[in-house]
Each structure stands twice: as structure tokens, then as C-alpha cells.
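Input (structure):
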């Protein structure tokens, strides 16, 4: 199956909004969890939607959208790690590994009808290319290691095996089921730009 992946812009906001639907993707998060932590749960979903809309409108693009024809089927948040302060302020097991100016691929949301159809893999590949073209030295991810007993069943961050297949390696593991993984972007070959 072939998907088109585009960087989210104000022009594509209606497609992102349609993908997330009235619930706002994962429990009304609207991808604010990585920016403000669990505080997103303590405010109305509409406030989270408005906050993401503001991020999209002011740019740069905060993520990528995958389309199956005209239908938006998947999202991943892709941004410099510095745009996601909760990673350093609230996620003790996901704190900085070093001072490298990494980008972060922090979460996914895939339309129910398109789950288990490689949408996340396509988004990972596009994220690697987009971060490389933005001159990021490395791309970081925070997946769940499903091989670890008792792991979280909430895999909106992806699985370690997905990222391993895409060339990511573990650079830190402060809790058994939650590795910090990176892809060295200095080895990524240039290709068509993701817009």
C-alpha cells in the first residue's frame, strides 16, 4: 500500500482535525502531552485542540500526516526535542542523554481502519528524512519495548522493534520497558523533500 506523507501546515489543519476527531486522538490529548505533561488531562479538550492549532499556525510544522489518497490516516509528532519541555521537566526516565541537538519523534496516531497496515513505519521513514533535511544530527524516539514483561499496553509512542527495523539504536534505558532510541542522521542519503 502506498501512502503520501506531508508536513503539517495551517493548510492541512482540517485534515489533522478530521483524523483526531472529536475525542482529540488519545483521550483528548491533541498531542499536548509531550509539551505540558499530564496537565493536558486537567483542562478541556478544546483548550488542547486550540493549543495544537496555535502550534500548527505559527510553525514550523510540528509533525507529519500520512494520507491514503485524500484520507488522512496517520500522524506523528516530529520536532526539535527543545519544543517538548515535558521530556526534561516531567519524564524522569526520558531525560536528556547528552547535549546533542536531537529531534524527537514522540508519538503516533493512526486511524483505526489503517492500523496494522505499516502507516507507522511509513511515518518513521518520512520522519528520518525530514529531520535529516532539517540538519538534525540525530532523531530520538521513546517507544515501548514489548519484549519486557509487564510493559505498558499504550503504544502511542511506537514499539522498540518498529524503530530497530528503521535503524534506531538504544542509547539509554532508565526503566526496563522504555528505551530511548536514536537514529544517526549523518548517514541518511538525501531524497525527495517531505513537504
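Output (sequence):
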Amino acid at each position: 500500500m502506498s501512502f503520501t506523507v506531508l508536513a503539517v501546515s495551517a493548510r492541512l489543519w482540517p485534515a489533522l482535525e478530521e483524523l483526531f476527531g472529536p475525542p482529540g486522538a488519545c483521550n483528548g490529548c491533541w498531542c499536548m502531552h509531550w509539551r505540558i505533561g499530564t496537565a493536558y488531562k486537567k483542562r478541556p479538550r478544546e483548550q488542547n485542540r486550540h493549543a495544537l492549532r496555535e502550534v500548527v499556525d505559527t510553525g514550523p510544522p510540528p509533525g507529519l500526516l500520512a494520507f491514503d489518497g485524500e484520507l488522512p490516516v496517520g500522524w506523528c509528532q516530529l520536532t526539535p526535542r527543545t519544543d517538548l519541555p515535558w521530556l526534561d521537566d516531567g519524564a524522569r526516565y526520558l531525560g536528556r542523554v547528552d547535549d546533542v541537538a536531537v529531534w524527537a519523534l514522540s508519538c503516533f496516531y493512526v486511524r483505526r481502519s489503517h492500523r496494522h497496515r505499516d502507516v507507522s513505519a511509513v511515518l518513521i521513514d518520512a520522519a528520518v528524512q525530514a529531520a535529516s533535511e532539517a540538519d538534525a544530527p540525530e532523531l530520538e524516539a521513546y517507544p515501548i519495548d514489548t519484549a519486557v514483561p509487564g510493559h505498558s499496553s499504550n503504544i502511542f509512542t511506537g514499539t522498540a522493534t518498529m524503530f530497530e527495523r528503521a535503524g534506531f539504536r538504544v542509547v539509554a534505558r532508565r526503566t526496563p520497558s522504555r528505551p530511548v532510541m536514536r537514529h544517526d542522521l549523518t548517514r541518511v542519503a538525501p531524497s525527495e523533500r517531505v513537504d
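Notes: Helices lie at 13-20, 33-36, 45-58, 86-89, 119-133, 160-165. The two ends are 20 Å apart (CA to CA).
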